[in-house]
Design a protein that fits this description.
Layout lengths: L1 H6 L4 H10 L8 H9 L18 H21 L1 H4 L7 H11 L40 H9 L1 H19 L12 E2 L2 E2 L3 H6 L17 H5 L8 H13 L3 H13 L9 H13 L3 H13 L7 H20 L20 H18 L3 H13 L8 H12 L4 H13 L7 H12 L4 H13 L7 H12 L4 H13 L7 H13 L3 H13 L8 H12 L7 H9 L3 H13 L3 H12 L11 H8 L14 H17 L3 H13 L7 H13 L3 H13 L7 H14 L4 H20 L1 H7 L1 H24 L1
Antiparallel strand pairs: 1-2
Helix pairs in contact: 2-3, 2-6, 2-15, 6-15, 8-11, 11-12, 12-13, 13-14, 14-15, 15-26, 16-17, 17-18, 18-19, 19-20, 20-21, 21-22, 22-23, 23-24, 24-25, 25-26, 27-28, 28-29, 29-31, 31-32, 32-33, 33-34, 34-35, 35-36, 36-37, 37-38
């Protein structure tokens, strides 16, 4: 590891790639890190020798310098042997320049609009200078030949990993023969689909695809995890160099799930580092999360960006491809999600809309058309039925239906592709100021499909739609402002438009916004922390976390499988997964049954401590401790409910030793975010002298702040103030009754008596 640091010290790009990818593996101080960033050679060796021996003299110093140069040259020669110089993905190297190299144009790493080929929902791709940095370099013919000769081994490795993964997640191998088309849990789109769309134009909202990711297919059948068999299979595959096995082992060691001795950060970092170096998305997200919070590694925004940027780039590239994209549905578990009532209610709503549509309601017809067009809410995608409902609604003059029909004809969805007909539908709806139709006309004029290419008209239509908060129009108008198409080039305006569209969750706008924040130059200085948050938002829109599969398993009461999937997503830094893990563990759901793992059972029988995931002898404390850790991580990502749960855990001693001082610290932090419950809890603790000096005046102030923050706290505050006044009166008038009725008064009285007794004994000893 020391050789890795030294041999890369003289090459800026490679050193940035390595330091961004080590995850703390290579030892380096902050001073040496800054030396590597500036490209000074030998930054890590500056303090290896601070004193020279007496008597060496000038010639001795030259001799030592010569030896150092020779050794350093040898290390550079051995670079490929010791440092895996070819393992750092080109994504890391390319994105290192986003943070450090300010000589390039601001637009170099941005994603722009493509006037030749675009997805039918409006996301697009360009072949001009505005383009995303590719995270994977093109293979040479010799590399392709080598890959072809190793195809049999690769298929065998895939099958072995899928078997091990199925054991770990409690799923079968059914439907996994097509996993070769997937990359890191996301099914790639076929080239035939992209080629079929020759003159596409955007539609208003993203769609839900019919395909499933490989990880979701693995766990699609019933079963419970077999951790003992899984960890042995994964260990063998990891020794053989399987990147996906290394990633899964790293996540397992990081969480401790399925491991007999629980969390092992050292092994977790080792496996995650090697997997991320080979481009594994899950490992990259896990290391980015750890670097962003300093979990077992040095806290470094730059390192987190280097890990996360290639993942976000993959999502942006997917958004630019033709065809529908699957939305990531983040369901937060609660008491209401424990039953299937929500799914039943959703089915009832869909059936009601379909009944209304069949009865001639134009709004319901448009809604059903969208459901069939995009394949949502449990309805299979069917463009012909969508066309039927849109045409019926359009016959009644519905502008939404007219705009949707324009997009369907422009993209050839359920009909033969016809830009002229699309223009007719768009113009009818745009005449009434419909933003989706105005956007469609703007795109056609930008691309020159069905009409003459006219940037000025495109700007006019995009601006009209953007003024009505149409996100695709805002994005394309931002690209035109950035490129200077049809208007004066204005980076600040582009930044504002990307920010407006990104607020509504537009992926390409978010990615461009992050790139501009890393670069600066739009009236502000580079902001790594803000860009990291945006990149995380984009990266989590990929299918690699399998949140929908986890929720499906939870709904089917396959709690062991659901917990395993949620824990994996939580280690990747997804906040909703962290909250869901904590929820399941506090409810005692998903723990491995006692005796389900022979190695852990033997460990417990010999007096060892059961890991948190193993339900041996009512092992609730370990599970609650891990739930607390998940809530703490969720709280750092702004989840106020998780933050309050952490405070409650310290207050009541749930999964941790009771610590009122820690509870006060957490509640104070939540009160700074204007949380009424936090103010109320602080008032109660101030009144009772729990972690704070007893002060009734300050307690009343906290209660009043709770009421002013949230009007729903008025009644609890009124009751608490009345009880405080009664308690104060009884302490003065009938103290024995106050001690009998109010436990905190009795506790304070006993503490006072013990203090007096201790003071008396100390005085006697002095005498």
């Amino acid at each position: 590891r020391f050789l890795c640091v030294i041999s890369f010290a003289g090459r800026k790009d490679s050193s940035m790639a390595l330091l961004g990818g080590t995850g703390g593996m290579c030892p380096s101080s902050s001073s040496s890190f800054s030396s590597f960033r500036s490209g000074r050679s030998g930054g890590g060796m500056r303090r290896t020798r601070t004193r020279s021996r007496r008597g060496c003299g000038f010639l001795g110093g030259i001799g030592w310098c010569g030896i150092s140069v020779v050794l350093f040259s040898c290390l550079l020669i051995m670079n490929d042997v010791f440092c895996f110089s070819g393992s750092s993905s080109s994504g890391f190297q390319a994105h290192a320049n986003l943070v450090e190299d300010d000589s390039d144009s601001t637009q170099d790493d941005l994603v722009g609009a493509n006037t030749n080929k675009a997805r039918h929902d409006g996301s697009s791709k360009t072949s001009d200078s505005i383009s995303g940095v590719s995270g994977v370099s093109e293979s040479s013919s010799s590399t392709r030949s080598f890959a072809s000769s190793q195809s049999h081994f690769q298929n065998s490795e895939d099958e072995s990993f899928l078997h091990a993964e199925a054991l770990y997640y409690g799923g079968s191998l059914m439907g996994m023969r097509h996993s070769a088309d997937s990359v890191d849990g996301e099914t790639t789109k076929s080239s035939s689909s992209a080629a079929a769309t020759t003159t596409p134009t955007p539609t208003p909202t993203p769609t839900t695809p019919t395909h499933k990711s490989s990880s979701e297919s693995v766990i699609s059948s019933s079963g419970v995890p077999d951790f003992m068999a899984a960890r042995h299979a994964l260990a063998l595959l990891s020794q053989q160099g399987s990147t996906r096995a290394q990633a899964l082992l790293g996540l397992a060691h990081a969480s401790g799930l399925g491991m007999p001795y629980g969390v092992d950060n050292a092994r977790a970092l080792l496996h995650l580092y090697f997997a991320a170096s080979n481009g594994d998305i899950q490992a990259s997200m896990a290391l980015a999360h750890r670097h962003s919070l300093g979990l077992g590694v040095p806290r470094s925004c730059q390192a987190a960006v280097l890990y996360l940027a290639p993942v976000a780039e993959r999502v942006a590239e997917r958004e630019r491809l033709p065809g529908p994209n699957q939305a990531v549905e983040k369901v937060r578990l609660s008491v209401t999600t424990d039953s299937s009532s929500s799914a039943a209610r959703e089915l009832d709503v869909v059936q009601y809309y379909q009944y209304s549509a069949d009865m001639g309601n134009s709004d319901a017809q448009t809604a059903m058309g969208q459901l069939f067009n995009f394949g949502m809410r449990g309805i299979e995608q069917d463009h012909s039925r969508a066309l039927h409902y849109f045409q019926r609604a359009a016959a009644q003059g519905d502008n939404d239906a007219l705009a949707h029909l324009g997009h369907m004809y422009a993209n050839g969805l359920g009909v033969e592709q016809d830009n002229a007909t699309a223009v007719e539908y768009f113009e009818k709806a745009a005449a009434n100021g419909h933003p989706n139709a105005e956007y469609g006309l703007g795109y056609l004029h930008l691309a020159g499909h069905g009409v003459a290419k006219d940037y000025a008209k495109a700007v006019t239509y995009f601006k009209a739609a953007a003024d009505q908060s149409h996100v695709e129009a805002q994005f394309h108008l931002g690209v035109m402002a950035l490129k200077g198409w049809g208007m004066k080039q204005d980076v600040s305006k582009a930044y504002a438009l990307f920010h407006a569209a990104g607020t509504s969750g537009h992926v390409l706008s978010l990615y461009n916004l992050a790139m501009l924040q890393l670069r600066g130059g739009h009236g502000t200085s580079p902001n790594c922390r803000s860009a990291l948050g945006v990149l995380k938002n984009v990266a989590e829109r990929g299918q690699w976390a399998s949140l929908s599969a986890a929720h499906k398993a939870f709904s089917n009461k396959a709690y062991g499988r659901a917990l395993t999937l949620y824990v994996r997503a939580a280690e990747m830094g997804i906040e909703v997964a962290e909250s869901n893990v904590a929820y399941m563990l506090t409810k005692g759901l998903g723990l491995a049954p006692d005796g389900s793992d022979a190695e852990v059972a033997e460990l417990v029988a010999n007096g060892g401590v059961a890991p948190w995931w193993y339900a041996a002898n009512g092992n609730a404390t370990g599970a609650l401790g891990y739930a607390l850790r998940m809530r703490q991580r969720a709280a750092t990502q702004g989840n106020l409910a998780a933050m309050m749960a952490v405070g409650d855990a310290f207050y009541y001693g749930r999964g941790v030793t009771r610590d009122w001082a820690q509870a006060v610290a957490v509640y104070r932090h939540a009160s700074h975010l204007r949380n009424a419950q936090a103010f109320f809890n602080l008032g109660s603790m101030q009144e009772r002298g729990e972690g704070l000096p007893r002060d009734l005046h300050l307690a009343k102030r906290f209660y009043d702040q709770a009421k002013s923050t949230n009007t729903e706290a008025a009644v609890p505050v009124m009751v608490a103030l009345a009880a405080m006044r009664v308690c104060a009166w009884m302490e003065k008038s009938v103290p024995w009754l106050a001690r009998l009725l109010f436990p905190h008064v009795r506790r304070l009285h006993e503490a006072e008596m013990r203090a007096k007794a201790a003071s008396s004994s100390s005085l006697e000893n002095v005498e």
